[in-house]
Amino acid sequence: MNLFDYVGDRWSRLSLQAWLHVSEVVQATLLAAVIGILIGVAVYASPLGSALATALASTILTIPSFALIGLLIPLFGLGVIPSMIALVLYALLPIVRNTIVGLGAVDPAVTEAAKGIGMSRFGVLTRVELRLAWPTILTGMRVSTQMLMGLAVIAAYAKGPGLGSEVFSGLTRAGSANSLNQALAGTLGVVILALILDGIYVLIARFTVPRGVRV
Protein backbone atom coordinates (compact mmCIF):
# COMPACT_ATOMS: atom_id res chain seq x y z
CA MET A 1 0.00 0.00 0.00
CA ASN A 2 1.42 3.41 -0.95
CA LEU A 3 1.17 6.51 1.22
CA PHE A 4 -1.81 7.99 -0.62
CA ASP A 5 -3.82 4.78 -0.28
CA TYR A 6 -2.87 4.57 3.39
CA VAL A 7 -4.06 8.13 4.07
CA GLY A 8 -7.27 7.57 2.11
CA ASP A 9 -8.14 4.38 3.98
CA ARG A 10 -7.50 5.99 7.37
CA TRP A 11 -8.62 9.53 6.61
CA SER A 12 -11.21 9.75 9.40
CA ARG A 13 -8.68 8.80 12.07
CA LEU A 14 -5.91 10.98 10.64
CA SER A 15 -8.16 14.01 10.25
CA LEU A 16 -9.29 13.67 13.89
CA GLN A 17 -5.68 13.42 15.04
CA ALA A 18 -4.81 16.47 12.92
CA TRP A 19 -7.64 18.47 14.46
CA LEU A 20 -6.56 17.48 17.98
CA HIS A 21 -2.98 18.41 17.13
CA VAL A 22 -3.92 21.88 15.90
CA SER A 23 -6.32 22.42 18.79
CA GLU A 24 -3.66 21.55 21.36
CA VAL A 25 -1.07 23.83 19.77
CA VAL A 26 -3.44 26.78 19.35
CA GLN A 27 -4.75 26.52 22.90
CA ALA A 28 -1.22 26.25 24.31
CA THR A 29 -0.10 29.27 22.27
CA LEU A 30 -3.04 31.39 23.40
CA LEU A 31 -2.51 30.47 27.04
CA ALA A 32 1.21 31.18 26.72
CA ALA A 33 0.38 34.51 25.05
CA VAL A 34 -1.77 35.60 27.99
CA ILE A 35 0.92 34.60 30.49
CA GLY A 36 3.83 35.90 28.40
CA ILE A 37 2.24 39.28 27.66
CA LEU A 38 1.40 39.79 31.34
CA ILE A 39 4.99 38.95 32.29
CA GLY A 40 6.33 41.28 29.59
CA VAL A 41 4.08 44.13 30.70
CA ALA A 42 5.18 43.63 34.30
CA VAL A 43 8.92 43.74 33.61
CA TYR A 44 9.60 45.66 30.38
CA ALA A 45 10.33 48.94 32.17
CA SER A 46 12.94 47.29 34.39
CA PRO A 47 16.21 46.14 32.77
CA LEU A 48 16.82 43.73 35.66
CA GLY A 49 13.27 42.36 35.54
CA SER A 50 13.42 41.98 31.76
CA ALA A 51 16.74 40.15 31.92
CA LEU A 52 15.49 37.86 34.69
CA ALA A 53 12.22 37.02 32.91
CA THR A 54 14.02 36.31 29.64
CA ALA A 55 16.65 34.20 31.39
CA LEU A 56 14.04 32.09 33.18
CA ALA A 57 12.06 31.53 29.99
CA SER A 58 15.29 30.64 28.18
CA THR A 59 16.20 28.14 30.88
CA ILE A 60 12.99 26.22 30.24
CA LEU A 61 14.05 25.68 26.62
CA THR A 62 17.29 24.06 27.77
CA ILE A 63 15.32 21.22 29.39
CA PRO A 64 14.96 18.30 26.93
CA SER A 65 11.31 17.81 26.00
CA PHE A 66 11.32 14.13 26.96
CA ALA A 67 12.80 14.99 30.35
CA LEU A 68 10.27 17.74 31.07
CA ILE A 69 7.30 15.60 30.07
CA GLY A 70 8.75 12.72 32.07
CA LEU A 71 8.95 14.94 35.16
CA LEU A 72 5.35 16.07 34.69
CA ILE A 73 3.86 12.59 34.33
CA PRO A 74 4.27 11.60 38.03
CA LEU A 75 2.57 14.87 39.03
CA PHE A 76 -0.28 15.03 36.52
CA GLY A 77 -0.48 11.54 35.01
CA LEU A 78 -0.77 10.80 31.32
CA GLY A 79 -2.89 12.69 28.81
CA VAL A 80 -3.65 16.29 27.97
CA ILE A 81 -2.57 18.06 31.17
CA PRO A 82 1.18 17.28 31.15
CA SER A 83 1.30 17.83 27.40
CA MET A 84 -0.34 21.25 27.68
CA ILE A 85 1.85 22.34 30.58
CA ALA A 86 5.00 21.41 28.67
CA LEU A 87 3.86 23.18 25.50
CA VAL A 88 2.88 26.36 27.35
CA LEU A 89 6.24 26.47 29.12
CA TYR A 90 8.15 26.02 25.87
CA ALA A 91 6.07 28.71 24.13
CA LEU A 92 6.83 31.43 26.68
CA LEU A 93 10.27 32.60 25.58
CA PRO A 94 9.46 34.09 22.13
CA ILE A 95 6.33 35.76 23.49
CA VAL A 96 7.91 37.18 26.65
CA ARG A 97 10.99 38.38 24.77
CA ASN A 98 9.01 39.96 21.92
CA THR A 99 6.60 41.64 24.33
CA ILE A 100 9.52 43.22 26.17
CA VAL A 101 11.19 44.26 22.91
CA GLY A 102 7.97 45.60 21.41
CA LEU A 103 6.98 47.65 24.45
CA GLY A 104 10.52 48.90 24.91
CA ALA A 105 10.61 50.15 21.33
CA VAL A 106 7.59 52.43 21.71
CA ASP A 107 8.66 56.05 21.29
CA PRO A 108 8.48 57.81 24.70
CA ALA A 109 7.21 60.91 22.91
CA VAL A 110 4.11 58.98 21.86
CA THR A 111 3.34 57.85 25.41
CA GLU A 112 3.96 61.35 26.76
CA ALA A 113 1.57 62.77 24.18
CA ALA A 114 -1.07 60.23 25.23
CA LYS A 115 -0.63 61.21 28.87
CA GLY A 116 -0.81 64.84 27.86
CA ILE A 117 -4.31 64.42 26.47
CA GLY A 118 -5.49 62.89 29.74
CA MET A 119 -5.04 59.15 29.26
CA SER A 120 -4.53 57.08 32.37
CA ARG A 121 -1.49 54.81 32.71
CA PHE A 122 -3.71 51.81 31.95
CA GLY A 123 -5.16 53.60 28.93
CA VAL A 124 -1.69 54.41 27.59
CA LEU A 125 -0.65 50.78 28.01
CA THR A 126 -3.70 49.20 26.39
CA ARG A 127 -4.56 51.80 23.76
CA VAL A 128 -1.11 52.96 22.73
CA GLU A 129 1.83 50.81 23.86
CA LEU A 130 0.33 47.35 23.35
CA ARG A 131 -1.14 48.37 20.00
CA LEU A 132 2.21 49.62 18.76
CA ALA A 133 3.95 46.52 20.15
CA TRP A 134 1.36 44.14 18.69
CA PRO A 135 3.27 43.34 15.45
CA THR A 136 6.30 42.24 17.47
CA ILE A 137 4.16 40.28 19.94
CA LEU A 138 2.35 38.56 17.06
CA THR A 139 5.71 37.56 15.58
CA GLY A 140 6.61 35.95 18.92
CA MET A 141 3.33 34.02 18.90
CA ARG A 142 4.01 32.92 15.34
CA VAL A 143 7.44 31.59 16.30
CA SER A 144 5.99 29.80 19.34
CA THR A 145 3.26 28.18 17.27
CA GLN A 146 5.70 26.79 14.72
CA MET A 147 7.93 25.48 17.50
CA LEU A 148 5.01 23.83 19.29
CA MET A 149 3.84 22.05 16.13
CA GLY A 150 6.95 19.89 16.34
CA LEU A 151 7.05 19.63 20.13
CA ALA A 152 3.44 18.44 20.21
CA VAL A 153 4.66 15.29 18.46
CA ILE A 154 6.90 14.57 21.46
CA ALA A 155 3.88 15.10 23.74
CA ALA A 156 2.54 11.78 22.45
CA TYR A 157 5.07 10.26 24.87
CA ALA A 158 2.64 11.31 27.62
CA LYS A 159 -0.37 10.07 25.62
CA GLY A 160 -1.09 13.61 24.51
CA PRO A 161 -3.46 14.17 21.58
CA GLY A 162 -2.41 14.73 18.01
CA LEU A 163 -0.41 13.29 15.17
CA GLY A 164 2.48 12.37 17.44
CA SER A 165 0.73 9.09 18.22
CA GLU A 166 0.89 8.19 14.52
CA VAL A 167 4.58 9.01 14.33
CA PHE A 168 5.48 7.10 17.50
CA SER A 169 3.34 4.12 16.57
CA GLY A 170 4.90 3.93 13.11
CA LEU A 171 8.43 4.17 14.48
CA THR A 172 7.89 1.56 17.18
CA ARG A 173 6.52 -0.85 14.56
CA ALA A 174 9.42 -0.22 12.16
CA GLY A 175 9.69 -3.02 9.65
CA SER A 176 6.07 -4.14 9.92
CA ALA A 177 3.35 -3.53 7.35
CA ASN A 178 2.50 0.16 6.83
CA SER A 179 4.77 1.32 9.67
CA LEU A 180 6.62 3.70 7.34
CA ASN A 181 3.35 4.99 5.88
CA GLN A 182 2.02 5.64 9.38
CA ALA A 183 5.13 7.57 10.46
CA LEU A 184 5.21 9.54 7.19
CA ALA A 185 1.50 10.37 7.38
CA GLY A 186 1.94 11.81 10.86
CA THR A 187 5.11 13.72 9.96
CA LEU A 188 3.79 15.19 6.72
CA GLY A 189 0.55 16.06 8.46
CA VAL A 190 2.44 18.14 11.02
CA VAL A 191 4.37 19.93 8.27
CA ILE A 192 1.21 20.75 6.30
CA LEU A 193 -0.61 21.97 9.41
CA ALA A 194 2.36 24.15 10.36
CA LEU A 195 2.29 25.79 6.93
CA ILE A 196 -1.46 26.39 7.19
CA LEU A 197 -1.14 27.98 10.62
CA ASP A 198 1.71 30.17 9.38
CA GLY A 199 -0.52 31.38 6.56
CA ILE A 200 -3.25 32.18 9.08
CA TYR A 201 -0.77 34.32 11.02
CA VAL A 202 -0.03 36.25 7.84
CA LEU A 203 -3.76 36.95 7.46
CA ILE A 204 -4.11 37.93 11.14
CA ALA A 205 -1.24 40.40 10.74
CA ARG A 206 -2.79 41.80 7.59
CA PHE A 207 -6.11 42.51 9.30
CA THR A 208 -4.91 43.54 12.77
CA VAL A 209 -1.70 45.49 12.13
CA PRO A 210 -1.99 48.98 10.62
CA ARG A 211 0.10 49.31 7.48
CA GLY A 212 2.21 52.06 9.01
CA VAL A 213 3.46 49.91 11.89
CA ARG A 214 3.94 46.54 10.16
CA VAL A 215 7.29 44.88 10.77
UniProtKB/TrEMBL annotation:
**Domain called ABC transmembrane type-1: residue spans:** 18-201
Q: Where are the transmembrane segments?
A: 25-44, 75-93, 137-158, 183-204
Q: Does the entry feature the keyword Transmembrane, yes or no?
A: yes
Tell me what topology the record assigns in the membrane.
Multi-pass membrane protein
CDD domains, per database record: TM_PBP2 (cd06261)
**What InterPro entries does its record include?**
ABC_transp_perm/SBD, MetI-like, MetI-like_sf
Q: Which domain of life is it from?
A: Bacteria
Instruction: Tell me the keywords, alphabetical order.
Output: Membrane, Transmembrane, Transmembrane helix, Transport
Per the UniProt record, one Pfam family is BPD_transp_1
SUPFAM superfamilies, per this entry? MetI-like (SSF161098)
Q: Where in the cell is it found?
A: Cell membrane; Membrane
Family membership noted in the UniProt record: Belongs to the binding-protein-dependent transport system permease family.
Q: What is this protein called?
A: ABC transporter permease
Q: Which organism is it from?
A: Amycolatopsis pigmentata
